[in-house]
Amino acid sequence: MLAVILLIWQKQRLTVFSNEPASVPANQAQTATPELGPRHQLNYQQWLEILKQEANVAAEKRPPRLSILAGDSLSLWFPVELLPEDRNWLNQGISGETSRGLLQRLSLFDKTQPDTIFVMIGINDLIRGVSDDVILDNHRQILRYLRKTHPKTKIFLQSILPHGGEEATWEGREKLLAIPNSRIQKLNQQLQSIATRQGVKYMDLYPLFINQKGNIRQEFSSDGLHLSPAGYVVWRTALQVYQQEAGSGE
Predict the structure, then answer these.
(1) Among 43, 111, 225, 232, which one has the highest count of C-beta atoms within 10 angstroms of its own C-beta?
(2) How large is the greatest C-alpha to C-alpha distance in the chain, in angstroms?
(3) Using CB atoms within 10 A of its CB, is residue 42 exposed (0-12), middle (13-18) or buried (19+)?
(4) What b/e readout covers 183-204, taking b as 16+ CB neighbours within 10 angstroms?
C-alpha cells in the first residue's frame, strides 16, 4: 500500500506543481501560511454554527458521492483544489479541535448521507496534555457513534501525523517538543487496533510523512505542525488509494 501511494504521489506531484513559476524559491511552499480568510477569525461557537449550516445544506441537497472530512485544522485547511475531484466534499474541520470536541459535535452532520467519512483527530489533545487513555477512549466513542448513525457509510480512521521536532517553527514549538514522535507512533498502533475491532478502515498515513529522524518531512509541512501544499498532495493520494481499495471490496 505504501509503495502504491508513493508512486501515485510522485505522478500527481508533477501534475499539481508543473505550472509553478521557475523563479519561486524551493523553500517557499514550506513556509507559506494557509490563507483562511475571515473564517479563521471565528470563535468556536461561530464555527459550529457554520458547520451546522453547511451540513444542513448537504443533508437537504444530498449531493452524490459525498465524503466528509472530520477533524481539526489539518482537515480544515485542506485546499479545495487538491481534494479528489471524483466526489463532493463536506469539510467539518475546526482549528484547534480535540477528540472530545469532535465527539460532541458529530451530530451536526447526522442527517447527511455520505459515502465515506474520514476522521483525523488527536494532535491537539497531545499538545494540551490529554492522556493517551482519554484520547483512545474518545476515538472509540467517535467510531461507535459514526457506525451507529451512518451504518451504510465507509468510515476511515486516519493516523495522527508526526510533527517537525527540533526543526518546527510553529509558535507552540515547545509544546511539540514535549511530545516524542515515538509516542504518536505507539498511539497510532493502538488506534489501528481500535479501528480493526470497530470494523472501520484504518489509514496509516504516518509512514508517508516521516523522514529518517522520525519527524515530519520539511517539504510536507509549513511549520512542523501544519501541512504544506506538497503534504496535502500526499494526503490526497492516500485518500484516493484507500477509497478505491475499499470500493473494490478488498
Answers:
(1) 225
(2) 52
(3) middle
(4) ebbebbeebeebbeebebbbbb
Reduced to 3 states (helix: H, G, I; strand: E, B; else coil), residue 59 is helix
- Please return the burial class of 59, using the count of CB atoms within 10 Å of its CB with bins 0-12, 13-18 and 19+: middle
Kindly report the length of the chain.
250
Cα distances (angstroms) measured from residue 144 to each of 28, 140, 157, 159 = 42, 6, 12, 17
Residues paired with 71 in a beta bridge: 93, 120
Q: Look at residue 27 and tell me whether its pLDDT is greater than 80.
A: no
Reduce the secondary structure of 96-140 to three states and give it as a string.
CCCHHHHHHHHHHHCCCCCCEEEEECCHHHHHCCCCHHHHHHHHH
Instruction: Please give the DSSP secondary-structure letter assigned to residue 210.
Output: B
CB-CB contact of 154 with 114 (8 Å): no
Helix H segments across the chain?
2-16, 28-31, 44-61, 73-76, 99-105, 123-127, 132-149, 173-177, 181-198, 206-209, 229-247
β-strand 154-158 against 66-71: which pairing, if any? Answer: unpaired
Model pLDDT for residues 172-206, shown as the tens digit of each residue: 999 999 999 999 999 999 999 999 999 999 999 99
- Is 74 within 8 Å of 93 (Cβ atoms)? yes
Say which residue the cell 470536541 belongs to: 101
pLDDT score, position 248: 55
